[in-house]
Amino acid sequence: MQVSACHKQKRALGYMLVFTISFFMLGKTICQAQSRVHGKVVDKNDHGIANANVLLLRSTDSSLVKGLVLPASGEYQFENIAEGRYLVMSTFTGFKQVYTPSFTINGGQQVRLEKLILAETAVQLGAVTVTSRKPVFEQKIDRLVINVENSITAAGNTALDVLERSPGVTVDRQNNAVSMNGKDGVVLMMNGKISYMPVAAAVQMLAGMNAGNIEKIELITTPPANFDAEGNAGYINIILKNSENYGTNGSYSATLGYGQGVVDAATVVLNHRSGKINVFGDLSFSEVRTTPYIYSYREISNGDEITKIFANTDRHATVTNGNGRVGLDYQLSSRTVLGGLLTGYYNKYAMNALNTNTITTDDQLDTLISIRNNEKNRWKNYSGNINLQHNFTKDEKLTLNLDYIRYSNNQPVEYFNSYYDGAGNFLFEEDTRSGKLTPITLWVAAADYATTLGKNVQLEAGLKGTKSTFTNDISFERLQQNTWTKDPTASALYSLDEKYGAAYASFNITVDKKTTIKAGLRYEYTTSNLGTVEVKDIVDRKYGNLFPTLFISRKINEDNTVNVSYTRRITRPPFNALAPFTYYGSPNTLITGNPSLQPAISNMVKVDYTFKKFLFSLSFTQDDDAITNFQPHIDSVTNFLVLYPENLVNARVIALVVSAPVDVNKWWSMQWNLTALGRQTNGIYQGESVRLQHGNLNINTVQKFKLPKGFSVEASAFYQSRNLNGISVTKPFGTLDIGIKKTLPRNKGSFVLNGANLLKTLVFRPETNLPELNLRTRTYLRFFGRTVKLTYTRTFGNDKLKGKRNRDTGAEDEKGRVQTQ
């Protein structure tokens, strides 16, 4: 007997309640002590000093371990401190900085330090410069961090360029898609907040975003329960620059270069922090002119007759991109912070192309088609966020977030087709045009709560609701007797209404000084409805899912650590894939969507082993109903090719990741990252079962050289071997970039001369070779060539004292909770 959806939902919520209560009881029974350091900072009158800075430093090299800003009481406390020798330093504007004597922490020890007394000084503090050289790549327990601002070869490039050169990341510019460790379903985050934009729009935005505005990029492959379950491959979190210095400060940069056309970009970042107020913002602009080239071939058998279609496309494109944001944080009290953020971007892709299609039958020239088409693809976005964080105690806080997000896409394309016979005689002309108008609106509300249960268990719980609505107005028209006539078979107005709610509970448990456990459970319930005016309920789904997560970390000794994790995730079909659009690459090639797409569920097991700075990671993932990018389908009678996304039966991926930083000497350091994948896809094509198995290798390296007189050189390269994408295989590709940096004296900024794609090897060559299914295609795509750019960057304003406010937005809080100290 079948159980109703309502009963299933109740049963799932019951499971989650039992899970939460069980872990709560477990947390109360595990009471191993944690290492803790606490004390007080006062003035000469024994009064606490609000907003003073307190830093926990290693006594061996004074390196920063943790820091915080004091409440009005002057009391401070550091928890979960590893064994070792430390000291505490405190400083505040107008006072002399003071230090405690060094002390030793042993496992489970509670240390109460003597009061630190800050003495006023009438002398202006001199500049204190702390230099910290982060590596380009930092591997952590659940993510790989790419420190973009420390990369010379990233200067003048875009965010998409940086991603494309990142370990385990594959960018499919043809289909505007991104995959990680061989898996699709990547979710984009900006400063810890999900962007919710369609993947195609996100790729276009990243293609225009100046890397000079980015601090770092985090590749999060095993998200915990407090992250949305969306995204089989995990999250890509882009952290924009935001200064924590008091006063007014910022930076600006300008880039000018040439590749297949002129490349220019500019970025400015501003920050003002004073008292209870922090105002920040940035604005960036870029324009890139390129001449992409595309060649494709396909072969179709119809009985004894073989048709071959050769297509050449020469494009002239200009990509214009603008990004901006402005934010305000106001500290209502020592425990409460109210924040607001407004963001927006504009991306315009303008292209005109000359396409030549040559069609042969049994190797005899049959038809020539000359196609001139003009395309504009404009994406606009604006969004607003209001967030409130209240700290009930030092161990208990509540964060509230409300977001409104609006996207709009306008993509008109004109096609002017001229037909000739095999002898070159003119036959006829056909003028057509297509249009696509897509507004997308989202409301997101979230509440996150964190507290400590006893001395060794932390609880995180939350609720979230999301409402998405969008319309997709597509049209296709033909010019007939000087009048544009709409083709109703290729035109429609689609409407989508999607809602999902989520609840999660997660526990961080310190079993002993060497073992920690993070376990959580998330439940999401989704309703989704897609239809047109003529056809209702094309898609009408209601489903709930449980998503457990488990992380276990065991520190064997100072040099060796083992981590084991399990996660379950979901990938919902993208909006633009569910509501079909029509894009004609040629008169006999159509790219469209697929309303019958089903959500995909993935299960992943991962083991990490770290030895000093070296990482070895092995994972296995199975995606059921995996969503793959545009796959070819050929009608052998009409020679018509249709490409659309579809579900596979499943996809299995085994991934091995090795990360190895090496310091050769004082002036030469290197980072090597290797990702080896074994992939198997099982699908149905035209009623036939298809199984493809393939292995591929991704190698990424960065070589950094520090030279005299303020010069430094960086060379970065990556190689991607043959890669499986659905039923298509992409041939090897890679690139080599070299950058030279000159730091100017007396804080006059720096110049970077950057050469990208120097060997002109960044070429995409997907192909499909399944003759038993009458499917043979081959494509060559060169989106850009060798490019040389010069970038000038300079910081300005107060950078002498840092005063990081002890608050987070809700999304930044989620990000911080999964970082390993």
UniProtKB/TrEMBL annotation:
Location in or out of the cell: Cell outer membrane
Region (Disordered): 799-821
Main location, first listed in the record: membrane
Coiled-coil annotated residue ranges, if any: none
Keywords: Cell outer membrane, Membrane, Receptor, Transmembrane, Transmembrane helix
Lineage: superkingdom: Bacteria
Keyword Membrane: yes
Keyword Membrane part of the UniProt annotation: yes
Gene Ontology cellular component list: cell outer membrane
Membrane-crossing segments per the record: 12-30
Outer membrane protein beta-barrel domain segment(s): 390-792
PANTHER family: PLUG DOMAIN-CONTAINING PROTEIN, TONB-DEPENDENT RECEPTOR-LIKE BETA-BARREL DOMAIN-CONTAINING PROTEIN
Stated name of the protein: TonB-dependent receptor
Organism this protein belongs to: Chitinophaga agrisoli
